[in-house]
Amino acid sequence: MATWLNNGFPRSLILLLTIVCVCVCGVRAQAPNTCLDCHAALDPPLQVTQAQFSQDIHAQKGLTCASCHGGDPAKADMDAMSKAIGFRGKIKRSQIPELCGHCHSDGAFMRKYNPSLRTDQLTQYKTSVHGKRLLQGDTKVAVCIDCHGVHDLRPASDPRSKISPLNVAQTCSRCHSDAKYMQGYGIPTDQYAKYTQSVHHEAMTVRGDLSAPTCPTCHGNHGAAPPGIDSVKNVCANCHVFQAQMYDKSTHKVAFQSAGLPGCVVCHSNHDVSRPTDAKLGTGPEAVCMRCHKPGDICDQARAKMLQDLTQLDGAVKAADRMLGVAESSGMEVSEARTEQDQARDFLTEARVTIHSFKTELVEQDIQAGLKIAAKTQAEGRAALAERDRRRRGLGLSLGIILVVLLGLRLYIRQIENNTGKVETAELRH
Amino acid sequence: MFVALRNWIDERFDWAGLTAPLREKTVPYHDLSYWYFLGGITLFLFGIQVCTGILLLLYYRPSATEAFESVQYIMTRVQFGWLVRSIHSWAANLMIFTAFCHMFSVLFLGAYRKPRELTWISGMLLLFLAMGFGFSGYLLPWNTLAFFATKVGTEITGQVPVIGHGLKVFLRGGEDVTGATLTRFFGFHVALLPGLTVLLLLTHIALVQYFGMSVPPAVEARWKALPSEARQMKFFPNFFLRELMAWYIALGVLGALAAILPWELGTKADPFAPAPAGIRPEWYFMFMFQTLKKIPAKVWFLDGDVLGILAFGVAGILWLLLPFFDQAGSRRGRRLVLGAGIFALSYIITMTIYGYMAK
Amino acid sequence: MVADPNPQLKPARRRMIKILLGGGLLGSFASFIYPVLRYLVPSPVAELGGDQVIAGKTGELKPNAAKIFRFGSRPGLLIRNSDGSYRALSATCTHLGCIVQYRSYLQEIWCACHNGLYDLNGRNVSGPPPRPLEVYEVHLRGDDVVVSLKREA
């Protein structure tokens, strides 16, 4: 058998047969889709190329044009698009959600493809601003294909997808940042511009943190709507747990609720959430407390105390850092102290979270714990420098002794050479 | 008490007879006599290396997982560990420096001439061994700089024609620099090299004692013309006491360096991390390293690196045989050697400075 | 060199020189020997290699409890399981580097900074963390709990 296979002719025959079989099988696995034969050559909006469609997840799962548009994909002529056999042609925008939902809301059907995919998108969509307005006849709002794409639809995990976390904010902004398009709706169009300034956007684009919040994280995707004044804090609380817990127990919660103000947004804004600094507690342009509180009142005093505490701890940590730096550049080993510094910095971070309780005594606790560690590391830095000084004193002492020896040698040499003739005129020794 | 001890020895050994050569030893005394110190200082520094090395051996662990930590332990937890380790590192560099100075002073003062050819050869071999000590010892703390410097250095060895690859694998204990390299270098550093050095040192010192100190040609000529000018200094106690002063000054310098400029520990070597920028060997290899860097990649049909290595190899062999270029009575020979010496010294100094400034 | 008019130095001066030199030499030897002797005495802190630390003592932790320990320059989390055995992981959250904690009532590892959750094998199960926590090996040696890096096969 082996020697027979080594001959050229039988080998190429087997290869040919294999290729033919694969082609036939391949073709049979994919339902015949002759629509693209013509539509690839047409002009947009009728154009759908094979290159495009091959990227589509529906196509990859075995669906054809007829799955959504109806008709007969096996017929290669215009008869394929006869209404009699169910051809729907271009789907009306207002009917698109129902069309997609026909499969995607059918749990038993979707289970055949991906059992863990959600099937409540259509229900959610109907609760959204987009869904409600669509029912009222507004076809300008987003429907499924506006965000997901249509003939080259990719899953959200694909970084090229329009709804991948990396891209979804831009997808939303296609309408929501277009002032002309959004005319008449009465909502601002600067959300995306503001979001690109935010620390959340930076986390995503600069640090590559795909878990960073983007539009759907706070607004939902299918059930997209603004969170509502009372719920904003709940949304932020999903990640910023401790801040929300402290806020809940604080005086500000009741105050903001009764004033109809949204929880976190008042101080941190919603779209352009910036990196908070201690200046927020100050009295300058970034100060948030003084927007409501009056100078000199009890809250202003509390604010000033918290700021003072934070500044104190920050200063202590920096001072300890400097001390350790000096010790290090003098050649002392302080890696343990450096690790402890991390703990002090952790307390500083915790204090900045505790601010959200708006209780100075709680902030004080964190500050004191941090100060204790900073004091300890500073002392370690000083000890390292003291050790360095001890070494230099020891060096001084031994150098002193060496100088004494050198002096003694010098005098001794002079002494013996004054007595005995050190130099002899002797024969040259080779 | 010393008298009683002396008598005890005298009853058994001919102490006076044994020590007579030492007591009678003289050293030529002229303006250039101070250059005679260099050999002794190098020996003294070697002694310091042996002592501090043995002390370090008590705590050092030669495995890739523990080497760095053990040196860190010595620097931070062992009483005066910082002193022992820093002295060891500084004295190593000082010793190689004084060894080079000793070699060049011997060259310029003509002390390699007949009958001292073997002294020169044994001395040159000792210099090679000293550089081997430096190269093997440098890796032992297993920090990033040392790891990559060793990688580059052994890589260059691998470029030697024919035997290069075998040599590289022998040095590295494998194809790459790993913990096996560390163990191997440790064996070289504390056993193989010391053994060879002791043998060569004894030879070298015995030869020096046998032939006595050489007198530079110019002084020699003057003394020949005016014999009354010839002066000798007794080794014991006069020269020795002066040498002792030099040794104490060296100790002071070492102590100051260790206390004020302690030797760095660096970061632990990570074989999988990319090489940091600015990898370079220690200063005593810099001139060779810089030369190899500057040779074009291809010279004629030869690979640039191979040419460089061969050139240094040939230079080393010629240097070893230097005395044979300056046979007695040949002024041209002396001028040749002097010229070579001036060229070599300037080349080394220039390329070393260049190497440091080029980064 | 001008000959000294008084070649024989006074005995007092000779004695001074002798004392100076002798004392200096003795002092210098003492200044060399003293550090060497101190060096030879082992330090009470006998640290192991950097890839291994003693995280605690057996009996220090109750079952279903945990503590943070220092692993070189990084924090580690030592957990005593309900059955008495131990496990150890890196305590540095893989999201933004906060120190995680063990929630005994839920038997999970939690990061307070952004609500990240890990299971007891270190796998990131919910929240922002993108990668699992590094798991260490734990051995008991006498009454020491020794944590070391996972050795490659």
Task: Explain what the structure shows.
The complex is a heterotrimer of chains A (430), B (359) and C (153). Chain A is mainly alpha-helical and 430 residues long. Chain A is built from 22 helices and 1 strand. Among the domains of chain A are: 105 residues, no CATH class; 118 residues, Butyryl-CoA Dehydrogenase, subunit A, domain 3, CATH 1.20.140. With 359 residues, chain B is mainly alpha-helical. The radius of gyration of chain C is 31 Å and the shape is elongated. With 153 residues, chain C is an alpha+beta fold. Chain C folds into 2 domains: 33 residues; 97 residues, Rieske Iron-sulfur Protein, CATH 2.102.10.10. In chain C, strand 6 and strand 7 form a beta hairpin. Helices cover 20% and strands 33% of the residues of chain C. In chain C, strands 1-10-9-4-3-2 form a 6-stranded antiparallel β-sheet, with no helix packed on it.
Taken from the alpha-carbon principal axes, the silhouette of chain B is globular
> Helical segment tally of chain C?
1
Overall residue-averaged pLDDT value of chain B: 91
CATH top level label of the domain at 25-272 in chain B: Mainly Alpha
CATH superfamily of the domain at 25-272 in chain B: Cytochrome Bc1 Complex, Chain C
Break the fold down into its secondary structure elements and pairings:
The complex is a heterotrimer of chains A (430), B (359) and C (153).
Chain A: H1 2-6, H2 8-29, H3 35-39, H4 50-54, H5 57-60, H6 65-69, H7 96-104, H8 107-111, H9 121-127, H10 129-135, H11 144-148, H12 168-176, H13 191-196, H14 199-205, H15 215-219, H16 232-237, H17 241-248, H18 251-259, H19 265-268, H20 298-329, H21 335-354, H22 360-419, E1 423-424
Chain B: H1 2-12, H2 15-24, E1 26-28, H3 37-57, H4 67-76, H5 81-108, H6 117-139, H7 144-157, H8 164-172, H9 179-211, H10 217-225, E2 232-234, H11 235-260, H12 283-294, E3 298-299, E4 302-303, H13 304-320, H14 331-358
Chain C: H1 11-40, E1 52-57, E2 65-71, E3 74-80, E4 86-90, E5 101-103, E6 108-111, E7 116-118, E8 124-126, E9 135-141, E10 144-148
Antiparallel strand pairs in C: 1-10, 2-3, 3-4, 4-9, 5-6, 6-7, 7-8, 9-10
